[in-house]
Amino acid sequence: xxxxxxxxxxxxxxxSIKKAKEETARYPQDKRDLEEELLKLDQRLKEAQxxxxxxxxxxxRLEQELEDLRIKVKKSKIRLxxxxxxxxxxxxxxxxxxxxxxISSLEEEVLKILEEIDQKKVEFExxxxxxxxxxGKINELISHLENRQKELKQKVSQWxxxxxxxxxxxxxxxxxxxxxxxxxxxxxxxxVKDEICQxxxxxxxxxxxxxxxxxxxxxxxxxxxxxxxxEKESAS
Length: 236
What we know:
Helices cover 78% and strands 4% of the residues. The protein folds into two domains: 2-167, Helix Hairpins (Orthogonal Bundle); 172-229, no CATH class. It has helices at residues 2-80, 86-167, 172-185, 206-214, and strands spanning 189-193, 196-197, 227-229. The radius of gyration is 41 Å and the shape is rod-shaped. It starts with a helix and ends in a 7-residue tail after the last strand. By secondary structure, the chain is mainly alpha-helical. It has a three-stranded mixed sheet with strand order 2-1-3.
């Protein structure tokens, strides 16, 4: 019957409106989640940059210590020419030996840091490129979410208008039945296919199913009481 087809369309519209509103309700959190991902990307990049800067500071500090030691050893070698006793001579020699050992140790440490800095620079460049790509993807997702919300807003407005117009064409008693069933069963109309109610998935008696196929009046499922809707297959 035409009235049942109208109610089916009304139910479809209500499902679409409900689904759209649920998606709209999730939108703020979905957007926040993506924005947090952007922040995490930026924080990871800043942390990598800080590590590189800390290594550079350490390198400069060690190189300054190295320069100071070289100056100290140089001065000690000059003093070595000026000492007058064996005891003073031995003490200055020890200073020079200690200084040269410290210089050797610092040079090795500086070399290791330089190698680490080179490695970190390569990693940082890779991370920058990866961050650029990921940021682009996330911004694209955010843009998609925003456009989707605009699209949903327009569609919901159209669906609501269509629903309001259809409601005016349905007899009041049938509309009341529809509303009562929807309140009790969450949805009021169920398709029937191959003698099975698609609302409760229980069997429809053959005689009733044959009557439904005639499409002459309104039928309800003997099990779940929903209005049954048979949709004829379109000719291929």
